[in-house]
Design goal:
single chain, 446 residues, alpha/beta, Rossmann fold, Alpha-Beta Plaits, 4 domains, seven-stranded mixed β-sheet
């Protein structure tokens, strides 16, 4: 069944994206989801849940509004407005005889605007820029341009926001930026690939092995415990129990591999309990990983769970009863007890390191966070520096590789570890000047 990509934004830009991307979307179907004002974004996204597998926003503003409202529950990206988009507008303004040395520009990054104009040999000392930031409203944008007109004598207002443009055009010469054809095609391709990859991952076989103390008879409550996984249960020849489900269901039931709902109950009934899940493309691969996972869980403590993946990453999950709180202060759960480690690499947080048990650490402990993401504390410190410098703009694998002096492949693995540990969230894509699909932008909380 083909993927359906919902295109969200003002009506004219939605139609442009659909027209440009229709032939390039391959087997994907583009579903127009226009709004009259960006304040309607949350409603449009909510209404599209049953109709779209992925969401493509025509700009950063509606994407940020949907993200802030917490309604992005599927792959979503926005078409970036970049220097090339701005340059095309400046050339058109020059052709019409406008003074482009006195302009006000919103949404774009200041360094990108100045670099674009400098490369075009245009003066920048009278250019005013309002970069996008979370919470920026249409009225903020209008006020910025009108103040620049009155105080700095700017002649043209260049805006990315449709609602602001309709107000500004009544008071000054206003130009509305529109995403370029290249940005539309590149972002759409990246979104379709990401969505297809996610659907493929959701369909991965997930096998779990439940290892209880020797001599334990049939646990009549176990079938009810695993009902949340929507799978089946069988007994192995060695007496252990085998769970069969899919990655998508497992990821949802375990809250992105941060807790095993029935682990506490098993431990309380049997004194100890070990659960290992393997995620593989085939049943054989998943079973081998599940056996590795349950063996590693036995080295953690009296009760533990491990999720093992084909890329040699093990996610160690301690029971809720460990008393570790994670994420939101005061919220009980095992999110803070999950340690992501490279299976054979010996990274920080190895399951066999009893001295690093999370129960001995406070929720805010840097050592606990290092264990959760499976990285060296000094690496986390350098990542904190990067996220503090980039602020709300987010980070990409390119920026991480540049800051840590590592290869981009290594940087992508680091970001994936942060994502699995719940401290990095992909928020869209950004065109950074290079060819090919735009890199994924992550918001990182360290």
């Amino acid at each position: 069944m083909p993927l359906t990509v919902g295109v969200i934004g003002p009506e004219d830009l939605v139609h442009k994206v659909v027209a440009v991307g229709g032939r390039a979307a391959g087997s994907a179907r583009l579903l127009p989801l226009p709004y009259r004002h960006e304040d309607e974004t949350t409603r449009v996204v909510t209404d599209a849940r049953s109709r779209a597998d992925a969401l493509l926003f025509t700009g950063v503003v509606p994407h940020a509004l949907a993200d802030a409202a917490g309604v992005l529950d599927r792959p979503a990206m926005y078409v970036p407005y970049n220097g090339a988009t701005l340059l095309r507008v400046l050339v058109e303004l020059l052709r019409l005889g406008h003074d482009v040395s006195r302009v006000s520009i919103d949404t774009l990054r200041r360094d990108e605007v100045l670099e674009t104009m400098t490369e075009a040999k245009l003066p920048t000392d009278r250019v005013r820029v309002l970069p996008y930031r979370p919470g920026l409203t249409s009225q903020d944008v209008v006020d910025f341009h009108l103040e620049a007109r009155d105080a700095q004598k700017t002649r043209v207002a260049i805006t990315c926001l449709g609602s602001a443009f309709h107000v500004l055009e009544q008071h000054t010469h206003a130009v509305r930026l529109a995403p370029s054809r290249h940005s539309i095609l590149a972002t759409l391709q990246a979104l379709v690939l990401a969505t297809a990859g996610r659907h493929s991952g959701d369909a991965q076989v997930a096998l779990g092995i439940v290892d209880l103390p020797a001599g334990t008879g049939v646990d009549a409550r176990l079938p009810e415990d695993i009902r949340v996984l929507g799978g089946s249960l069988a007994e192995l020849p060695d007496g252990r129990r085998l769970l069969v489900t899919t990655r998508g269901v497992l990821e949802t039931a375990t809250e992105r591999f941060t807790r095993i709902p029935f682990l506490d109950a098993l431990a309380s009934r049997h004194g100890s309990a070990y659960v290992g899940f393997g995620l593989g493309r085939t049943a054989a691969e998943a079973e081998a990983l599940a056996r590795r996972a349950v063996n590693r869980a036995r080295s953690v403590g009296p009760a533990a769970g491990v999720v093992s993946m084909a890329d040699d990453v093990d996610i160690v999950i301690a029971p809720d009863a460990a008393g570790v709180t994670g994420g939101v202060p005061g919220e009980a759960g095992a999110a803070g007890a999950a340690g992501v480690t490279g299976g054979a690499s010996g990274a920080a947080g190895a399951a066999g390191d009893r001295s690093a048990r999370p129960s001995a650490l406070s929720p805010e402990s840097p050592a606990l966070l290092a264990r959760r993401v499976g990285l060296h504390p000094q690496t986390l410190d350098r990542l904190r520096e990067l996220t503090a410098a980039d602020g709300a703009a987010g980070v990409t694998a390119h920026r991480v590789a540049e800051h840590l002096s590592v290869q981009q492949r290594t940087a992508r693995r680091i970001l994936k570890r942060l994502e699995r540990a719940g401290v990095a969230v992909p928020t869209g894509s950004r065109q950074e000047g290079q060819t090919g699909r735009p890199p994924i932008v992550y918001r990182v909380h360290l």
